[in-house]
Design a protein that fits this description.
Elements (H helix, E strand, L loop, with lengths): L3 E4 L5 H15 L6 E7 L4 E6 L2 E3 H4 L7 E3 L3 E8 L8 H24 L20 H15 L3 H19 L1
Parallel strand pairs: 1-2, 2-6
Antiparallel strand pairs: 3-6, 4-5
Helix pairs in contact: 1-3, 1-5, 3-4, 3-5
Length: 170
Amino acid sequence: MALKLYNQTRLPDELLRRLLVRTARRVGARSGIVVKVTRAREQLTGEVWNATGIAEWWCKRGGSKRYIRTDGAYMRIALLDWRGCDQHALSTAHETIALMLHEWSHVADAQVGGREHSRRGPNGRKPAWADRPEEVRAQFATKHAAEKPSKADDDLELELAQALRETWKR
């Protein structure tokens, strides 16, 4: 099953597709899921849902009610649409890749299944975000995958920074 990308940003589809597949491989996730990439105003965000499929209308405006099969999860990533000076493009690219690694580790959890997730305690509340087992696993996987990037990973990061610079100039 191939990656199904719905890109609502001005970044090139091919660059995002290569970046998503590369980061999925780094954390050991299968990349046959639906990914919706949107624009954010304030900060980078990402969400992953466990599911075997999704309706197409969620992914794009005017989409049909057609059901799209996924490989265990689907993901939404909101990239910064910030028009600033060029010196921030490289740090934004680095943060974007770290976010993708983090979200792909959640996808890997969903694809494996049977992992421990946070539950409500006796007081009826979930634990703090950083103390949840799924977040601890995701942070560990992200840190482990980001420790030794290859030359191809560095090249993709530079290519993303250049593409961000170009879109910010428009």
